[in-house]
Each structure stands twice: as C-alpha cells, then as structure tokens.
Amino acid sequence: MSGPVTLTLLNGQETDCLPLSDRGLAYGDGLFETIRVVGGSAPLWSRHLQRLERGCRTLRLTLPAEQLAIDVERLARRLGEGLIKLILTRGSGKRGYAIPANAETTRILFGSNAAVYPAEHAEQGVRLFACETRLGHQPLLAGLKHLNRLEQVLARSEWQSSDYAEGLVCDLTGQPIECTMSNLFMRIAGAWVTPDLSQCGVQGVMRDLLIERVQQEGGFVQVRTVGYDELLSADEVMCCNSLFGVWPVIQLGDRHWPVGPFTRQMQSLAKQVYL
Q1: Which cofactor does it need (predicted)?
Q2: Which of 57, 168, 190, 205 has its CA at 20 to 30 Å from residue 103's CA atom?
Q3: Is 248 exposed, middle or buried (0-12, 13-18, 19+ CB in 10 A)?
C-alpha cells in the first residue's frame, strides 16, 4: 500500500470509537505490543504473543489468542509492509479499581506505515542521551509492556535535539536498565551482557531473540545487574528492538565507542528474522 496508511480494528470490527468507560483509558489497565509487518506477515508474532501471555497471567486478563491471531494476520496482509500497534484492555467497567466480575477483554489494533529511521543510525551508530528520569522498582510488572508508559514519556521529553537517537534510562539506584524504546547490550570481558529486568524495564522480543541466537551459535549472554561504570568501560555497546533491529551506540556523555565487529554480528542476526 502506498501513501499514509491507517487501519483500525476494535474487537475485529473496523472502527475507531472506544467507550469512555474503557479501563485502559481510565487506569492503564492493559498491555500492548508494537509488531513489525514484512511481506504481508508478522515474523515475530509468536514472540509477541508469548509476552502477552505472561502479561495476561500477571494482570489476570483473559487473552483472546485466536481472535488476535486472526486480527494480526488480517491487518498484516492488508498492510504488506508496516507496523501494527496491538492493545489489550480489560474492557469497560464501573468507577473504581476493583476488577469487574464480568470483564471482557477489548482488543484494539492500529495498522500503519512502517517506522522510518535514518539509515546512518544502523551504519554509523547513535548517541545516547543520559536521562535523569529513573525507573521505579515494581517486580510484579517488571518485563511487561503494560499501558503505563509515563516513565518513558518523561524520559523521552528530556531531549529534542536530533543529535540523540535514544536515551539511556537507569533505575532508582543509578544502574543502567534500558533505553527509552529499546534494550541495551554491552560487550564486557569478551562476552555480551544485558541488564537484569527483574525489578523494572521491558523484556523486549528482539532482546530475547538475540540472546537465543547468540547461544545457538555457541556464545553466551550474561543477564545481570550492570553498574554505570561497567557500561562506560564496555568495549562495545548496542541497543535493539523489533522495529529497527540493532543500533550501535557510539557515544554517551564523554565516552565514545567504535562500531565493533560483535555489534555487526548482532545486526546480522537481527536482520535474518525479516529475510
């Protein structure tokens, strides 16, 4: 499809009207996924669905898996190339935090053109802005892509300059966790390290995929707490998500990094998903 594209499904119907009583609007009571569409399909759909399953168990949401699969396939075919924003909410309810006894999950899907990022981000690398906004600790919600993204909104609002493509976000103790829209990897002492997300942060599907691919090729990725000084002393740094793949990180404050060979390997692994 050429030109700007916007396709919207609400519970399988083409409409853009949502009841004002929806708990996703009132309380952020729900989950979301942003899914890349290539060649009329969503190659990472199974991984997005796995994360939705984890989130639904935690939030005690009913997961309409079969209907979602139909919706995603339908929009993907129509888009050809683009992205799907999928939102699940607990549906409508009366005033108050108590979960309605008869809650019916609402599924919302927006189909649109693919996100466009400058080619030099992948080739030459990106600079990170050091965000002051901190991620609060909530182990129950850690790793999930729930609807409350206010921490990320505040972090992203800290810079407007095009000199920065992403921002580093730390937790309350000052330890690096992730970037505003992507996960973080560092090459330390001959191995890849990615921050532990058991207290906060989003467990990205590209992060999980890269960990698996590295291990399949005989490598190893350490998932652990990382100190700020460790990040600065790393040999290579990169960030990743399912939309842009892998971006080499070349600068944070006064620290500069080269675009190293191990980062290039990770870029290759990420690209293979969409071939």
Answers
A1: pyridoxal 5'-phosphate
A2: 205
A3: buried
**3-state class of 24 per DSSP?**
helix
What is the C-alpha to C-alpha distance for residues 6 and 96, in angstroms, rounded to an integer?
A: 33
Domain with 134, as residue range(s), is 119-272
Chain segment 120-159, per-residue pLDDT in tens = 999 999 999 999 999 999 999 999 999 999 999 999 999 9
Residue 105 annotated among the catalytic residues of the structure: no
Please count the structural domains in the chain. Answer: 2
Q: Does residue 102 carry a pLDDT above 90?
A: no
Task: Count other Cβ atoms within 10 Å, centred on residue 15.
Answer: 11
CATH of the domain at 67: 3.30.470.10
58 is an active site residue = no
Helical residues (DSSP H) of 80-204, grouped into ranges? 119-124, 150-156
- The answer as to whether 1 is a domain residue is no
Q: Which two tokens stand for residue 197?
A: 């997300």
Both 160 and 234 in one domain: the answer is yes
Annotated active-site residue 94? The verdict is no
Query: Which residue in 33, 89, 166, 178 is the catalytic one?
Result: 178
pLDDT digits (tens, 9 = 90+) for 11-45: 999 988 889 999 999 999 999 999 999 999 999 99
